[in-house]
Amino acid sequence: MADTTHGEGRLGPSFPPWLKKTLTTAATVAATVLGLLFVTFMIGRVMPIDPVLAVIGERATQEQYNQTFRDLGLDQPLLVQFWIYVTDVLQGDFGKSIRTGQDVTTDIGRVFPATLELATLGTLFGVVLGVPLGVIAAVRRGSWIDQLARFVGLIGYSMPIFWLGLVGLLLFYGILGWVAGPGRLGIFYQGIVEPITGMLLVDSALRGEWAVFRDAFSHIILPASLLGYYSLAYISRMTRSFMLEQLGSEYVTTARVKGLSEWQVVWGHAFRNIRIQLVTVIALAYANLLEGSVLTEIIFAWPGLGQYITTSLLANDMNSVLGGTIVIGTIFVGINIFSDLLYRFFDPRSK
Amino acid sequence: MSTSQGLRNWLLSEEPTSRRQARFASWYKGWLTLRSNKLTMFGLYVLAFLLLCAIFAPVLATHDPFAQDLGQRLLKPGENGHLFGTDSLGRDIYSRLLYGARISIYIVLLVVMVAPLVGLIVGTVSGYAGGWIDVLLMRITDIFLAFPRLILALAFVAALGAGIENAVLAISLTAWPPYARIARAETLTIRNSDYIHAIKLQGADPFRIVTKHIWPLCISSLVIRVTLDMAGIILTAAGLGFLGLGAQPPSPEWGAMISEGRKYILDYWWVATIPGIAIFAISLAFNLLGDGLRDVLDPKEDNS
Predict the structure, then answer these.
(1) Model ipTM?
(2) pLDDT at B211 > cutoff 50
(3) Which end of chain B is more exposed for a tag (fewer CB within 10 A), N or C?
(4) pTM here?
(5) Which of B132, B140, B154, B287 best tests the A interface by mutation, with the highest count of A CBs <10 A?
């Protein structure tokens, strides 16, 4: 990867390479999404719960049962059922939630902004602290700051997130009282701000409700820094290894020989070349936080997608679980494709 | 002293006289590298300690891990002979931790037996067969990789029902794709080498080539990945236990213990905190060991 002189392309096919690449990517995405749906479909089918009984309840007559059985399409062959499922999902219809009685799509639309807000703030922490930490650790290799980066990473990979959340809650809320407790907003501030985006910090700022903003911030700061810590561990580790690779290459030596200042060598040359890789890593860290939020949301009673999925799970509400799973899975695929495309467009070596 | 010195010389000999000597020598040199890394050795000691705790749990435990005593509930650590205190049902936390170590190690061992094997089979078949089989298998692998691990495990457990065995199955189902990727990459580099062609000319069938000549060469990269993965497996299992989807009460699984203590965290901090320290210790130990093993088994990848 450090080889910047590498310029020869692969043996070209008969039609334009960009077209072929785009088609391959499109086919890959389609196949992956279809596979994703197939997996969730099969999970829904092997469930020990009878989907008909879940809808009509235990006391329905045999006639009602048969009616619903047909309405749900369960008398059709499996392949036809899958086809119905795929067309429904592609139209944004995940079925009804048994627990809330609403469409799963509506439910997810309601809870998703909370998760997005949390994950975004968390990633922000991770980037702001993790990138400089990684860069400095690479430049001062073996120094105390490098040890610190290693330590941060090791703790991040070994600590159960839900436990760290509990300890954080105990320390900063229970003992020190620096932050607000579980939940998204104190009871006095609820219902003041009309939702615009669904993200409380953004909404309260847009409406100019600064008291609400402060309270929301006091609630989000702890879970967001917790998630941020995990993305910090990942981002700083990756930044460090990218930077080491660049710093060891010849153009850096040339820059040094030319007499450039250390600052220019590090930030002006080496760092410039890892930007694309870094964006990819940050995108992946972001996707990981969406997943990491499942346990965090439980600890902090955060009304987001993760909590929605687990509560539904414990209530045997399969439509909601699978809907949430598909949403997160699709975001994962989307982010992966996005970082792939990013490489293709901005890295001249891959052209 | 003299015999151990002789053994050492035999192991470090520059000109091994037999295959066995050469093999032992390479193991011994690996061990020396491993031993020179203090952090790795620390991880190894912690792990050995936890393993001993798990094995000798009945001897070391001061109380029955399941015995409830409501008169003794939520005692502070050290009170009334309870080293780490008691939980909300008056059960001794220290004894439960010891038995919990068995569950964690049991889960890790089961997953480690299933996931890498599935990955190895899928990856080597995919890499060796090539063509549409390769495309199909790798697409399936990608689909599983596209799912976030915990969410997929959640969905599987939801479908299969909660419990340790199903948690193991769910974690294995989410853990195999990276192994398949690694095994396939290794296979692709091996499949066109001369010795494989030679065996083919001798008439070996694909099954024999894959199992006898490709698998052994994939093992070392898989072992590294497995050790680095173990912490993740433990954390996922603990997460499932915490959510109530892994081991079921009254089983002393660490994640479930944290979940039980969660309600009392503000007043009785030790109930939830102490099992968390145990989870942290075991996954940290696996991570340290994994880093060290990677340095020994895979000198190409200088990650220090």
Answers:
(1) 0.81
(2) yes
(3) N
(4) 0.84
(5) B154
